[in-house]
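cache lookup: miss for this entity combination. No prior model stored, computing from scratch. Input as submitted by user K.M.:
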Amino acid sequence: DVHLVQSGAELKKPGATVKISCKISGITFTDHYIHWVRQAPGKGLEWMGLVDPEDGETVYAETFQGRVSINAVTTADTSYMEVSTLTSEDTAVYFCSASTTTLPYYWGQGTLITVSS
Amino acid sequence: DIQMTQSPSSLSASVGDRVTITCRTSQGINNFLAWFQQKPGKAPKSLIYGVSSLQSAVPSRFNGSGSGTDFTLTISSLQPEDFATYYCQQYNSYPLTFGQGTRLEVK
């Protein structure tokens, strides 16, 4: 069975930084792109970027360029996503997803990040 | 960025109904079009890829069609478990983009 297990919910203050983990099992980590997608409360899905664990190459949506960092630690089969300079508009559920193509397929359970003073 | 225009935004239907959701892209995407189903509090689930290919274990009542910039998801006979929100997505080019979603509700 394939499992993507994400870190737990967090409450952050505006201006802070958050780092979310996504531990993957049941698939060959380096054979899969790891995507990050977010969903604000009551809103749709927004693709943030991805990492190729094989070489560490990343692609980011321009909206997040410079404020989001995604990486993959192959020794731990884990991807991390860090978002800096948080605002209330970053309050959302963040999902990781793994796939052998550019189409997200296996999904984590989601991590709720709440930004509030 | 490729814009995805999905319609309707919401839809009321009954078990057994046939429903259709449309998705229009702002430019051609070489048929790299997928459909996802999402239930409240859950991660999205991939239903269809490449416009019309069903993912493993997806019931055959789900059908994807279209070409160019106009695509359709049809559910031929709604089942109780199908009431959810549906999203189209293009994966032809970065950034990957989603439609705004169609909420399928019980009439």
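stored under new cache key. Chain B touches chain A through 22 residues (CB under 8 Å).
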